[in-house]
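Worked example 2:
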Amino acid sequence: MPDEGQQAKFDYAGYFRRIRELERLAVSADEISWREKYEKPERQVDVLLYLGCNVLITGHLAVEVVAVFKHLGIDFEAIGGPQFCCGIVHHSQGDTDAANRLSESTVAKMESYGAKTMVMWCPSCDLQFEEVVIPTVAQDFAPTITHATEFLARRADQLPFQKPVKSKLAVHTHVGHPRQERDAAAALSLLKAVPGVEIVGTISSDRLGYHCPTPSSAEAVAVFREERAHMLDEAKAMGADTVVTLYHSCHREWCDAHTPELRIRNYISIVAESLGCDTEDRFTKLRNSNDPDAVLDASRAQWQSHGWEPDAARKVTQSYFPFGGTQYGTNHG
């Protein structure tokens, strides 16, 4: 037991294990199209797509963004997972030395690809690099950093859209942060290029910070639920049939509100659908199940592809499902 007034040590191993286990319930081994284990690259690339760690919980989004990048026909490599941790989790716990070591190691791995541009997917990684990593441990970081929304918006005319996505979109954005407002503007520009899409408006709250995190207290849960309910009502009043999220963390925290009348989708899924490279949102399917046995059966093809035995898979599904509280994410992306 920790001393009175002393916080228990953060379970880093459990945090990263949770990401990997949930990934393996939602993504088959043959769908992993990014590097999760670092090896010295055999060649240099023009663009490095940095997925971060937490997106792997909503693994279909990682599958889709890599597929969209392939449709651009650019020379790129995608990396993601705990071996490429940006250090934000350790930094937030006050483990500055450990965070800096992780950041330095990840920066060295990134620079070994020789990319001129690094594209961020995760808003927390973006924040950590801008506010901590670059100023403290990587002042001479070589690649130019941009977010996926901006990178894709600038190249929207190069994307070979194949079919219209007939949807009326209310786009959920975050306000009060220049970084997030840039992301929102870029995402709106990109979505406008998708045939069939109608953007009926944007919905946001200045009480939710730079992304929608897993609420960490009863009070935070109440605030999030209240604000989300208001935004859902706004979306319905606008005539939307789909709420579009920008970040995987927002998708994770909104998808339990998914209904046939008002769907919850990430912007990359809209783009991927029009390109013909979208994939099933298994996370929402599992997230909204109240039966661990049903989750076990629904994810069988995925966990079997990773070599899990039924007893091991059952133990994992019973650990996380039904979803609730902070079982499936943290405040960091």
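The first helix runs from residue 12 to 26. The first strand starts at residue 47 and ends at 50.
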